[in-house]
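Thread amino acids onto this structure.
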């Protein structure tokens, strides 16, 4: 019998994650969302139950997954659910290819047709979208989001809460991507990036500081 799971986030990405959860063998019970106008509506035929109350709605050992793309919010909500006794399982699509020598952290989301190579590491609460390649000995930090079709070279350290936009490439030879960095879609990164940077282009160039980051 399939285990129940609740989805936190009833937007379009919530539907994507619900679909993935079902592929992974879970039964979606319902959705929570901070937008109260969604309460009573449905997503993929499942009810939106309202805003998640961490004191009342978290059931001990029940399954939850946070379907929010903002890295900082995603990590914060996930940690609060675990703190209150909920469980956030890894959701790994059966068509993802992961080396037996790779390390996948807790509460990760890994979509179909992704390849994670030998001794690569994916940090807790990270999201790896479809058709991503993470080459050998690369380390992805906590709470990162790597969008569809990205290519991440070998031996790269990607720090916490980095967002890599769709179709971007991080070339082998790059050593460090600083925390809370945003890399625009279609970019090609050929050198190290300082923390809290917004980068874009071919090759990727510094656009501005990431002012949306409030992490100390």
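Threaded sequence (216 positions):
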């Amino acid at each position: 019998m399939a285990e129940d799971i609740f989805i936190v986030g009833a937007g379009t990405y919530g539907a994507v994650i619900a679909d993935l959860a079902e592929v992974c063998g879970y039964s979606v019970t319902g959705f929570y969302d901070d937008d109260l106008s969604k309460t009573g509506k449905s997503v993929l035929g499942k009810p939106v139950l309202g805003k998640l109350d961490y004191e009342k709605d978290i059931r001990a050992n029940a399954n939850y997954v946070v379907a929010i793309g903002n890295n900082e919010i995603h990590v914060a909500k996930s940690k609060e659910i675990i703190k209150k006794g909920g469980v956030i399982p890894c959701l790994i699509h059966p068509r993802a290819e992961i080396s037996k020598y790779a390390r996948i952290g807790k509460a990760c989301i890994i979509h179909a047709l992704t390849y994670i190579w030998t001794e690569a590491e994916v940090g807790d609460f990270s999201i790896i979208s479809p058709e991503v390649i993470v080459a050998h000995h690369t380390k992805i930090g906590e709470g990162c989001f790597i969008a569809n079709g990205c290519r991440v070279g070998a031996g790269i350290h990607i720090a916490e809460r980095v967002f890599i936009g769709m179709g971007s490439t991080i070339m082998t030879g790059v050593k460090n991507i600083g925390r809370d960095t945003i890399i625009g879609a279609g970019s090609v990164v050929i050198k190290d990036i300082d923390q809290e940077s917004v980068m874009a282009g071919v090759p990727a160039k510094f656009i501005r500081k990431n002012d949306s980051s409030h992490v100390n």
